[in-house]
Amino acid sequence: MPRIVCLWLGLLLSFSGFGQSDQDFLIIPKPAKMEVLDGRFMFSNETTVRFPPDNAELKTLADPFIRQFQAATGFSLRTENRPGATPTATLLAFVPVSDANLGDEGYRLDVTTTTITIEATKPAGFFYAIQSLYQLLPPEIFRSTPADLSVNWSVPACRIEDKPRYGYRGLHLDVARHFFPVSFIKKYIDLLALHKFNTFHWHLTDDQGWRIEIKKYPKLTQVGSRRKETLIGHYYESDPQQFDGQSYGGFYTQDEVREVVRYAKSKYVTIIPEIEMPGHALAILAAYPEFGCSGGPYETATKWGIFTDVLCPYDRTFTFLQDVLTEVMTLFPGPYIHIGGDECPKISWKKSPFCQNLMKKLKLKNENQLQSYFISRIDKWVSSKGWKTIGWDEILEGNSPAIRVSPGATVMSWRGIEGGLKAARQNHDVIMTPGNFLYLDHYQADRSQEPLAFGRFTPLEKTYSYDPTPADLPATAQKHLIGAQANVWTEYLKTANQVEYMVWPRAAAVAEVVWTPLDQKNWPDFTRRLPALFKRLDALGVSYSRAYYDVVAETRPQPDGTLQIAMTTQEETAEIRYSTDGSTPTAQSVRYDRPFDLTKPTSVKAVTVKSGVVIGDVQVWDFAVSKATGKSIQFATIPTRPKNIDPALLIDGRYGTTIGYLEEMQNVAGVKTADLTATLDLAEPQSIQLVTIGLVKATAGAILLPKQVDVAVSDDGRTFRTVKTVSMDPRERGKKAIIRQTLTFEPVTCRYVRISARNVGKVPAGMTQAGKDAWVMVDEITVE
Ligand code: TNX
C-alpha cells in the first residue's frame, strides 16, 4: 500500500523498512504531492533513457542530465535508439501527456524498482521533473568529476505529482552597483533553475553603472559603465566619506546578453531586463547630460543612495529611451520589460522651467503627476510594441484618471506589501518583493559576526515564513497576484562569493514560498532538508551561508553579580562546543549542556558540531562583567533609539555595535538633543573607583561625542557628588566607532552611580550635519 506522505515524512522514513532512509526525499522546493513506495530504482551502465523519437525538445532537455550523470557517476546512460539496450535494464522514460491538472509547468514522476516515468504536458514540466530527480539522487550527482565508488546511485520508489503555486517565481540581481561576469550569471541561472524559479530579473542600469551595450548610444558603456571610485565601507562609515580611488566598471556586450538569454531559455528561465527611469539614472546623465534638467555636467555615482539628478521629461529623452528599449527588445524574449520607476526625487523637476511649463501645458497638479506622465508615456510606447511594462510600486503614485499607467502594467511591490495589495485590488498584476522578507541584501545573522551587508535583519526563517497571498484578499485581486521574487542589491556585495553567501540558502526558502502549496510548507521539515541542500551546494561550488547553524548567545545578568550565558542553535540535532580561554573551539572543546556563569569579563567562542564535525562558523563574543552586572539602571530622559528601550541593555554584558544603518545599531541607546543620564543602583554601598562607558561617534549621522562625561555618586539616590568629569570634542569626526571612555577616580563608597553624557545640542557649524539636532549614543556601562 502506498503511504501518503505529508508533513512529518522524516519521522516516517526513519523506521521504514522499505529501502528508504532519512537521506531520501530532500527535494527543495517541496513537491505538491508525494507518495513513498517500496524499494529503490538502481541506476547502472545498463539504464536506458527513452523519449519519443520525434521530440527534439525532450532530447535537448534530457541530454544535459545524461551528461551530468556521466560526469558525476562515470555511468553512461543509454538512449534507447542506441544499440545494446537490454530488455532487463532499468528505464527512464519521458512520456508527454495531455492533462490539464498538470498545467504548463507541472509533472508526474513515478519511480518503481525498474522504471522511472516522467509525464508532463509541456517541456518545462519535464525540466522540473529532472530537477526533482537530481534532488532524489545523492548530492554527489552535482559533482563535475566522478564521486567515489561507495555512492549508491539509486532513488527511492515514489510517486510525485507536482506543480507550482505561482506562475511567476523570480530572483533578481543588481549588476549595476557591482558587476558580475557572464560565467557567474550562468551559474546563478543554474541555481535558479535547479530550484524551479522561472524568472531572472536582471537589474542592468543604475546611478553607479550602465551595464548593457546599446549600439546607438555608445557612450552609455564608454562613459556610463565606469565610475571613478567607490565608497569604502558602509554609507555612514566615515565622515567625511572615504573612497577607494579605483576606477570601476564593466558591461555586457549584446552578444553576451544574447548568449545569457539563450542559456537561460535552455533552463526554462525567462530574463526580464530592467532599464531604470526616470530616477537612478546618473550613469545615463554622465554619458548624455542633455537628458538632465540642469544640463550637467554629471558623473556616474561613486556612492549609494538616492540622487536628485534624474531624467528630464524632454521629448528627446523619450526618443532616447525608446531607442534604447528598441535595442533591448531585440535581445530579450519578452513579454516583460522593467522600467524601474522607484525613488525618483522631484527636486530637479521643481527647479526646471521646462518641467514647470510642461506641467502647466498638461494641466498637472504636481511633480508626482509628472512622474506618472513620464511612466505612462513610456508604458504606452512599450505596450504599443506588444510588450508589457513592469515597474516598482511607485509607478502607481501620482496617477490620475487622465494620466495613469495602463491596466496591463505589472507592479513590483517592494515597500512592504500594502502597495502590492492595493495594486491587485485595482486589477494590476502584482509581483510581491517585500523588503522585510525577500531582500537578500539584509543581514541573515548576528551582524557583529557577519560580512558587511545593507542593514536590516532577515534571517532564513523569516524569509521562509512569507506567504505572498493574504487569506483575506478578495478572489478577484488574488488572481492578479502572480507571484513573488527575492531581490539582491549589491551595494555591499563586491564579489561573486559574497553574492552567493547572501543568496543561499535564503533563495531556497523563497523557492518554497513560490512553488510549494501552502499546506505543504513547513519550517521544521524545510530544516530537515537543509543539510542536503548544503551538500548539493558544496558539490556545485557555491559559497553559501551556514548562518542557520550559528550559535546564538543570550546574556542573563544574575542578582549575585554573575553573568549567565545561555546558548542555542536552530539545528537541534547538533551540539554546541565552546571555549572561554580565547582558543578557537573545535569538536573536542567543552560541550555546552546548560547555561554557565561568568564572573569576570570573558571572550566566549562557540561553534556547532554534528557527528564529531564542526558544521558552523565560529561565533565570538566579548562579554562584560562588572559591579554593574545584575543591578538596576534608570534613565533621566528615555532614549528614543532604539524604540521601546529596556534600560537594562546598558548593563546586560553585551557591547554594542554600530554596524549597519543608523537605526540598526545594536545594543546602544541614543537620546536626541538632551543629555544621556543613567543612574545605577548597586543595591548596597560598595567601594568603586572606575567607570567605563562606550560613546558612539557617527558624525555623518549626527551622532556626536558628548561634550562632557561625568560620574557622580550618592548614598541615598537623591544627593549626588561629582567624582569625575572628562571633556571631549564633539566635533571629532573620522571613522564611525564606539569609543570606550574610562573614568577613574579616588576609591569611594556609594550605593548609586550616575553617569551623564552631555549633549552638545545642535550639530556645530562646519560639520556634515551642521544645524541638525545632535544625538548622544552610548553602549555598555561597567563599574569597578
Ligand atoms: C532600494 S528596492 C532600492 C535599491 C537599493 C535597495 C537596497 C528598490 C526598488 N530600490 O535601489 O539598492 O533599496 O536594499
TrEMBL record:
Active site residues according to the UniProt entry: E343 (proton donor)
Q: Which GO terms describe its molecular function?
A: beta-N-acetylhexosaminidase activity
Quote the CDD domains the UniProt record gives.
Answer: GH20_chitobiase-like
Q: Which UniProt keywords apply?
A: Glycosidase, Hydrolase, Signal
Read off the SUPFAM superfamilies from this record. Answer: (Trans)glycosidases, beta-N-acetylhexosaminidase-like domain, Galactose-binding domain-like
According to its UniProt record, which reaction does this protein catalyse? Hydrolysis of terminal non-reducing N-acetyl-D-hexosamine residues in N-acetyl-beta-D-hexosaminides
List residues of the Beta-hexosaminidase bacterial type N-terminal domain.
Answer: 27-162
Q: Which GO terms describe its cellular component?
A: membrane
Q: InterPro entries, alphabetically? A: Beta_hexosaminidase_sua/sub, FA58C, Galactose-bd-like_sf, GH, GH29D-like_dom, Glyco_hydro_20_cat, Hex-like_dom2, HEX_bac_N
Recorded E.C. number(s)? 3.2.1.52
Please state every residue range assigned to the domain named F5/8 type C.
647-759
List residues of the GH29D-like beta-sandwich domain.
564-612
Protein family membership: Belongs to the glycosyl hydrolase 20 family.
Q: What is this protein called?
A: beta-N-acetylhexosaminidase
